[in-house]
Design a protein that fits this description.
The structure is a homodimer of 472-residue chains.
Chain A lengths: L15 H14 L12 H8 L3 H13 L3 E4 L3 E4 L28 E2 L12 H11 L17 H15 L8 E4 L2 H12 L4 E6 L4 H8 L3 E8 L2 E2 L1 H5 L5 E4 L13 H12 L5 E5 L24 E6 L11 E4 L2 H10 L9 H12 L2 H24 L6 E4 L6 E6 L5 H10 L2 E2 L1 E2 L15 E5 L5 H15 L7
Parallel strand pairs in A: 3-14, 5-6, 5-8, 8-9, 9-10
Antiparallel strand pairs in A: 1-2, 4-11, 6-7, 10-11, 12-13, 13-16, 15-16
Chain lengths: 472, 472
Amino acid sequence: MDMLTFSMDEKRTVPLYRQLYEYIKKEIRVGNFEFNTKLPSKRKLSSYLKISQNTIQSAYDQLIEEGYIIPVARKGFFVNRLDNILSLDLKFVEKHIKEEDELQNLSYDFSYHGVDHDSFPFSTWRKITKEAINEYDRDILKPGSSQGSSSLRISLAKYLRQSRGVNCTAEEIVISSGTESLFQILIQLLGQEYVYGIENPGYEKLNLLFKSNNSNFKTINIDMKGMKIEDIEGSEADILCITPAHQFPLGGIMPINRRIKILNWAYENENRYIIEDDYDSEFKYSGKPIPALCGLDTYGKVIYMGSLSKSLSPSIRVSYMVLPELLLKKYREKLSFIVCPVPTIDQNVLQKFIEDGHFERHINRMRNIYKRKREILVDELSSMKDKIEIVGADAGLHLLLRIKNGMSEEDLVRKAHEVGVGVYAISKYYYDKTSLDKVPTVLLGYASMADQSIRMAVKRLVEVWFPHIKDY
Amino acid sequence: MDMLTFSMDEKRTVPLYRQLYEYIKKEIRVGNFEFNTKLPSKRKLSSYLKISQNTIQSAYDQLIEEGYIIPVARKGFFVNRLDNILSLDLKFVEKHIKEEDELQNLSYDFSYHGVDHDSFPFSTWRKITKEAINEYDRDILKPGSSQGSSSLRISLAKYLRQSRGVNCTAEEIVISSGTESLFQILIQLLGQEYVYGIENPGYEKLNLLFKSNNSNFKTINIDMKGMKIEDIEGSEADILCITPAHQFPLGGIMPINRRIKILNWAYENENRYIIEDDYDSEFKYSGKPIPALCGLDTYGKVIYMGSLSKSLSPSIRVSYMVLPELLLKKYREKLSFIVCPVPTIDQNVLQKFIEDGHFERHINRMRNIYKRKREILVDELSSMKDKIEIVGADAGLHLLLRIKNGMSEEDLVRKAHEVGVGVYAISKYYYDKTSLDKVPTVLLGYASMADQSIRMAVKRLVEVWFPHIKDY
């Protein structure tokens, strides 16, 4: 090939060298310039196209770098061999996958997820964040340490010791983004030989998580005191995942006796561990908070897990766990390559928020707010009191209703949805449906509902669940 | 037991009910109050201790709730049965594990990690963040959607189409926190049957990640064009993890021919995929950026992966991948329970930062800054030019030095450390040391070094590596 017929557009903002590059590239890719074709020399093309040799050099350089042409010393530039898929990418495949429609069009949603929006400390959070984005902090752009910032871990350790009776040091804490991330780390840390025992009913994501990680797990039935010891023993489980402070979703608090039995079970075999998920223990509305199970453990068998999803916001994505000494050692040997997923600025903000006492004040304030919401809910539900039973300790951010009106769980949920109220069938939390309660039961979370919304929503529920109650 | 001998301290700030509760609990736990012991009635104890029955009721209630005592109707309160580990937790085990000392005491560190601190857009970031912490945004405290906020994904899709030639839509993007998190998702998504092929030498964490997830992987040798096709074919790998835009750490750019060969390899078998890690492609200092390999793929075989660790900061913890249609479908079926680990506020900040053009301006600015740093480094190294060879394309944030002064890599690194300069032996990136380059080679990252620091550091390197060069 001696010359190129190439129509330049000098008015285009695209530089000439790039127009030339794109033209040649296209011709090679559609097969017009075949393998081993010699391109015009820079000198000839320059005088032909009336553009500088430098421009041509730039275009050729780019083509060489991307492999389209090959320079051969003292011979010139040759088209490279391209395999036979070249024209495929010229087809444009319209990709269109609809996002799952997550909106349910509910007026009132007793979803378990979410917190009270109006009580989030926006101005404090804004002020601390503004201060944390600080050009004089030389560490702020560095990738963080694997377990999370040590100052945040010191603050968390202090909080856990004082508020939850967890006897831990900052060194033992691993910070991550959500309970799932912590489980993801633990699955890697403990290895795949073990069988996990999870509560039935329980947190609906745990089985998905173990499944997607190819981990063995067994569901273990619970009563209102927690996992039944005989079921644990018959399960082959090595590692129990439990919620002793406030069982999710049934709401039971594990009494000391069961706690001790479960610890003893763990002490019987060196492969056994207990994962204590203390997910909403900040919210207990009567009596003193019950210390974490972890505080009773003296042989390093309990992995304590907590999160800010309930106490602050699920959108903050911060969780933490306390590793027993042996597992901490293993973490440092095997997993210290993991970078803490929480952004450094966010860790600094949270540290300051805790250290300055805002976190404690926030929790104390929220405890009163949620207590009030719970009271409103229970009070409103009282009009149905002969036909319903409220289940779950005076704690957390949800309760259960056992309803005896002849409707199935499915009916109850559907009827509620028909009047724009979201409630959740308990059967969804049962992995093993054979142990399902005979009485239809629904879960109502109230954290994100306004007081007045709770009242309005319950009125609608009464109307559709108990249409014969007239005097309400 | 008819009565309790209990010394109250009315001056203590601890409420009386709690003092009583703690006293009884302690007596039960150390074994002084045995199983089935009957506690004094509220009335009797009240008149004995001269405290109200309500106070006693509160203490007993707490003890009942925690399971220490059992109320028996019309009989009274009895001590519960506790197993035999009770006193163990009274021992205090001092736990003290030293944090690994990560400080290396270097004056100048050519670490590959980190970015230029002084050029981070602190004031813009602060302003946008301040605006993002917005009480009128009702979604800000909700747990985010699994793939990340759709507005951020729309902005990222636009950016990827324009800047990287990735033909993608927002629906196909999954946002996570760091490259490791993306690989963690992919390992779950693709399943454990597959064999991953990773570049040798390559990103040092990949093998750790696959190992800790029990995934099979093979190392595949590379030349300056990328993985060798014959080595791929001999490897049994199903899924290749490659860095075509700028191989890490060798710095080669994969030419079009090799790209097409690798795509064709993937097209031969339905189980095959290519993971394209486009980690620092924003920084190319000559020629036009080379579009992503993903842009050539028409059969949905390339998983494109990017991160803000180099373009913005590793402490931001944001990465993203583009899933081919089939894998996206599988993700939605199997993994949509995963919550995006990036905090909602951070996603909103980033979206605004990209949408308002700050991101593009920042990258363009950084490209010039890093180009200048690279030029300073290359220029300073020129005094050693007969004895060293600079390897790696004119791109990215690091380069390699092949050094022929008779020293081993270990010597080179040690000598540099002795004068307070951090450089990194290339052998650390070789999983399979048999293919190691014969010439000792070190890696120098320059992103986080100030111009003057680069000059000072190279002077020190010359002094210890080439003490005979006098005229420098």
